[in-house]
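Lecture notes, unit on protein representations.

Consider one protein chain, 378 amino acids long.
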Amino acid sequence: MKHYNYIFTGTGLAALMTVYEMILSKKLEDKSILLIDSDAKKTNDRTWCFWDDSNSFEEIISKEWKNTLFANENFQKKLNIEPYHYKMILGLDLYNFVFGEISKNKNIHFLQEKVVDFSDLGDHCLVKTKQNAFTCKKVFNSIFNPTLVTSQKKHPLLQQHFIGWFIKSKEPVFDKNAATFMDFSVNQKGNTRFMYVLPTSKNQALIEYTLFSKDLLSKKEYEDEIELYIKKLGITEYEIIEKEQGNIPMTSYPFWENNSKNIINIGSAGGWTKASTGFTFKNVTKKSKQLVSFLNADSDFTKFHKKDKFWFYDLLFIDVLFKDNSIGAKLFSGLFKDQNSGLILRFLDEETSLFEDLKVILKCPKVPFMKALFRRVF
């Protein structure tokens, strides 16, 4: 049975970013590392977007926007997000980039098999696939187990679910310099529903119908709404170049409590997704840096995570939307209508002071949040 220092079960964003940070650190070159996934990551299966004020991953940024738009049924506002730019990375570009770096390191290996089990045996871990078994010192697990959340009621689960179309239109209707961050002008139907538009030219854009809600829709319901929105934009002829769909868990469930000394849950499986927005990329890049730094100082994964004020803010936010899913448009409109957009983005990046937190929080509807706070305290 072959032995490794580290095994990654699953090669999602968190696994790839953690391995990439291991490579950059140059402190783990003597460690044998195995990544296992049934998916070879050879297709463009998703898009990651994030706001950033640095040159990180500049070589694989497919598009960036200086301006973003926010809209609801009553107003439309161009958001000043300085010093940030809003950026997009295509899944395949990221996979090729990270696996290209992995290929330069003889201590890192990839195996295309399905992981069926893994366990912490005290002094080592055991990982099983359908065909093989391996031992290792540490496991980094990014395989999401939904039953951990659905089998309990203390921490509610919302889902950010969406279908997106990359389209090329006859009419030049898009502003290629402005991304539509959220457009709540679509019929809410008792939920939190919005359109997300990422133009790459005057004639091409990703149009995504997104919900923050408990339940998924049929494929037809998403696509009917996309078609209605395309007509609303004044487009009469278009072709669909590509489609994407996804479902991101939004919950403050403490996934880290399932970590053991030698097994750590990362990515969505470890609660690395920003619970209140579903944004993943920025959170994961931060957490992966922290984790690699932790590896150089400690060996007990139960010590890695610590709760902070932002976890509690997200907890209340999910409580409010779970209790009344129709309030989402009002909540986000209150945040973006009059606020400094850069401040809100820093708040969502968990980089604000307590005073700045209060400036943002006081723009939220007070009654539902006070009720949520009361329920949590008592």
